[in-house]
UniProtKB/TrEMBL annotation:
Lineage of the organism: Bacteria, Bacillati, Actinomycetota, Actinomycetes, Kitasatosporales
The species this protein was found in: Streptomyces aurantiacus
Protein name, UniProt field: Prolyl 4-hydroxylase alpha subunit Fe(2+) 2OG dioxygenase domain-containing protein
Gene3D superfamilies registered for this protein in UniProt: q2cbj1_9rhob like domain
Length: 276
């Protein structure tokens, strides 16, 4: 049988290039700029920085927050409820802007935080370590020149529903400086006895994924064939990952899983902007 032109083209093609999925976790102490750039560029899966806070510091912070009021994400949007300290931009976004209550709640959370933590502010300690690695300004993200709250404390029990976080898709044009990459940062200040792993997939959201949407999350069938990382956090460790990649937390049943968390945006003018 005479080969068709199409057969001929396919048969002449040889695979000579091996494509590396580039989705490893890098452990580094101290944090370094190169790792942050690789994470932002998508050629690294996660950065793990041991001991960003000391185990004693973690225990102390949990104790200091004991008497502090926690709220939940808007329960119409996220169910079952997630306990957290401090306001999330996510909850206040309406009709293309932040609802005005955001600013009162942000300043109130900052006051409560200062009162609870006193002179040794763990947020400042974490930001100092990030700023030391990053050769450029590191500051709170702003909206209309006003600083957003950062440094939320969140208690996650885990949920096999995956989600992604990408402020430019969810709230386009709201921030004064548009992030070109969005990283998530969590420092683990209390860990459960079981579960609680952070699972990150090398896969961003696509519009067709919405056929598999389950409430605020998406079905794991979407990522069945994708490379992924399963990270078991250590106390005091800081983990950075690209929150535009789908991720979920393995459910835990015993003990509290608390993180001091914020997003880190990388801007085209070499800033890191942080917010919750
Ligand atoms: O708590 C974690 O390990 C990650 C939580 C999360 O969904 C995020 O930081 O975007
Ligand atoms: Fe997330």
């Amino acid at each position: 049988m005479k080969p068709t032109d199409a057969d001929h083209l396919i048969r002449n093609t040889e695979v000579v290039q091996q494509v590396d999925p580039l989705f490893d976790a890098e452990t580094t102490s101290p944090l370094n700029r190169e790792a942050l750039l690789r994470l932002a560029a998508g050629t690294l899966g996660a950065i793990r920085v041991p001991d960003m806070l000391t185990p004693e510091g973690c225990v102390q912070l949990c104790a200091q927050l004991d008497g502090t009021e926690f709220s939940t994400y808007d329960e119409r949007r996220i169910w079952p409820p997630i306990a957290k300290f401090g306001p999330a931009v996510y909850d206040y976004y309406l009709d293309g802007q932040l609802r005005p209550e955001y600013w009162q709640d942000a300043r109130k959370a900052e006051e409560q935080w200062a009162k609870a933590t006193g002179a040794d502010d763990p947020m400042e300690a974490l930001i100092a370590q990030i700023a030391e690695a990053w050769d450029g300004p590191v500051s709170r993200a702003t909206v209309g020149g006003r600083s957003l709250f950062a440094g939320m404390v969140r208690e996650l029990k885990g949920d096999p529903r995956m989600h992604f976080d990408e402020v430019v898709r969810e709230f386009p044009g709201v921030f004064d400086h548009t992030p070109i990459a969005q990283l998530g940062f969590n420092c683990y200040i209390s860990l459960p006895e079981d579960g609680g792993e952070l699972n990150v997939f090398r896969r961003r959201w696509r519009p067709t994924d919405d056929e598999d949407r389950i409430g605020f999350g998406w079905s794991q069938t979407i990522v069945a064939r994708e490379p992924h990382l399963t990270l078991t956090p250590e106390l005091g460790e800081g983990i950075f990952f690209d929150t535009r990649n789908y991720h979920f937390i393995t459910p835990s049943t015993k003990g509290r899983r608390l993180t001091l968390a914020f997003f880190v945006g990388v801007t085209a003018d070499n800033r890191l902007i942080i917010w919750a």
